[in-house]
């Protein structure tokens, strides 16, 4: 069993599961098609879910279990996920864990696979293809006391909810931010105006790679007054719109919003427009970022290409570590708060829905932490103020 991409006549793609004979697994395909077409999930989401469901089918086949009722032994599936090899030349071999051996898959990867399997089986239960009692093997009844305050609702009372039975404890690992010095070094290492614009869209505007690759020329309003373009927003800005793109780029946010940009970003847009016009003229794709130096010329860049660019720039700049686009987005959010911005401002700028979503993106500067400590008065000063 493996994940496989399917292209529809409309040009939209999704991922499904095929067996050893390259036949589509119908039950998995029904779930993944609904995920992509009816629920509006990204192509990358269907790929991740298809890979997880394929692993579940592979385990059921290897252990001769009926996938419809195998959920009652999910613990054995977790053990198999931790130690069984992935797709490759050794996938038929049996791995026996021993002292000092390293798991094949970590806790985060296993939890993602379990999420895909739960959603798949829940979908088939709803469609009467799987017995209803399987749902009890996937979820247990819990309450809202362990949820964050903003997720409990306005009522304030305790409510019951379904809680997944099987979930591994993941080690806490924060995503570090790219420092301003690292961003500047990568910017100086760029060899084209297009690459400089890409770095700024990631680190100064805070867009995700899929949003950068999905920008169209009509999304950029870079004049003080955009009313002639049918937009009432003042100042230079770019519109982030979730749409189906030919390069597979996809905005994670369901809503559309306008992101203000400063003079530095506007200047980078201008320089890139001149570079693009000199190489390919005024026609071509409506996407902002296109291939300028390698075929297919004029085709929109992909999300993967943006990630490769950032990593190569960090190496070319001689940095001591590899920078990722996500670290650039964290840098933008942290810089906003270091400059006095509030959480609701960061939430709006990042296009996030929940008030608590910006918190993982905040990395206060050490100087700001030092100033916070220095603002705390000394006990002797308090004694003098109170006269005691």
Question: Mind explaining what this structure looks like?
Answer:
With 388 residues, the protein is mainly alpha-helical. The protein has 14 helices and 7 strands. The protein has a 3-stranded antiparallel sheet. A two-stranded antiparallel sheet has the order 1-2. The chain has a two-stranded antiparallel ribbon with strand order 3-4. About 1% of the residues have low confidence.
Keyphrases for this structure?
mainly alpha; 3-stranded antiparallel sheet; 388 residues
How many helices does DSSP assign? 14
Order of helices and strands: EEHHHHHEEHHHEEEHHHHHH
Rg measurement, Å:
25 Å
Report how far apart the termini are. 77 Å
Counting DSSP E segments of at least 2 residues, the number of strands comes to: 7
Lateral arrangement of strands in the main beta sheet: 5-6-7
Largest sheet: 3 strands, antiparallel
Q: How would you summarize what this structure contains?
A:
Helix content is about 45%, strand content about 10%.
Secondary structure topology:
Blueprint lengths: L1 E6 L5 E6 L7 H13 L4 H20 L11 H10 L23 H20 L7 H5 E5 L16 E5 L15 H10 L3 H11 L5 H5 L6 E2 L15 E4 L16 E4 L2 H18 L22 H14 L8 H14 L4 H8 L15 H9 L4 H8 L2
Antiparallel strand pairs: 1-2, 3-4, 5-6, 6-7
């Amino acid at each position: 069993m493996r994940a496989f991409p399917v292209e529809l006549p409309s040009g939209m793609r999704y991922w499904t599961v095929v067996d050893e004979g390259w036949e589509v697994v119908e039950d998995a395909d029904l779930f993944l098609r609904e995920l992509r077409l009816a629920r509006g999930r990204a192509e990358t989401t269907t790929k991740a879910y298809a890979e997880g469901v394929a692993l579940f089918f592979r385990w059921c086949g290897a252990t001769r279990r009926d996938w419809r009722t195998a959920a009652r032994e999910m613990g054995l599936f977790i053990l198999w996920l931790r130690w069984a090899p992935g797709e490759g030349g050794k996938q038929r071999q049996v791995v026996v864990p021993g002292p000092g051996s390293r798991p094949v898959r970590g806790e985060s990867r296993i939890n993602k696979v379990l999420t895909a399997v739960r959603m798949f089986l829940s979908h088939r239960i709803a469609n009467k293809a799987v017995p209803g009692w399987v749902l009890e093997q996937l979820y247990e009844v819990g309450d809202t006391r362990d949820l964050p305050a903003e997720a409990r609702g306005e009522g304030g009372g305790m409510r019951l909810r379904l809680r997944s039975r099987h979930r591994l404890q993941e080690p806490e690992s924060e995503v570090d931010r790219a420092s301003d010095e690292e961003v500047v070094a990568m910017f100086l290492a760029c060899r084209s105006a297009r690459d400089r614009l890409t770095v700024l869209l990631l680190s100064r505007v805070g867009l995700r790679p899929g949003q950068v690759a999905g920008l169209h020329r009509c999304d950029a309003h870079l004049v003080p007054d955009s009313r002639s373009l049918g937009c009432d927003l003042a100042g230079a800005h770019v519109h982030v719109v979730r749409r189906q793109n030919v390069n597979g780029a996809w905005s994670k946010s369901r809503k559309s919003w306008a992101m203000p940009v400063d003079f530095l970003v506007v200047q980078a847009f201008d320089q890139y427009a001149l570079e693009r016009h000199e190489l390919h003229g005024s026609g071509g794709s409506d996407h902002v970022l296109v291939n300028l130096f390698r075929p297919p010329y004029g085709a929109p860049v992909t999300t993967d290409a943006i990630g490769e660019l950032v990593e190569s720039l960090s190496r070319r700049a001689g940095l001591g570590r590899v920078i990722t686009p996500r670290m650039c987005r964290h840098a933008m959010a942290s810089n906003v708060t270091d400059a006095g911005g509030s959480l609701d401002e960061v939430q709006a700028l990042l296009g996030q829905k929940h008030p608590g979503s910006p918190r993982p993106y905040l990395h206060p500067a050490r100087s700001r932490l030092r100033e916070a400590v220095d603002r705390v008065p000394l006990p002797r000063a308090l004694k003098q103020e109170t006269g005691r």
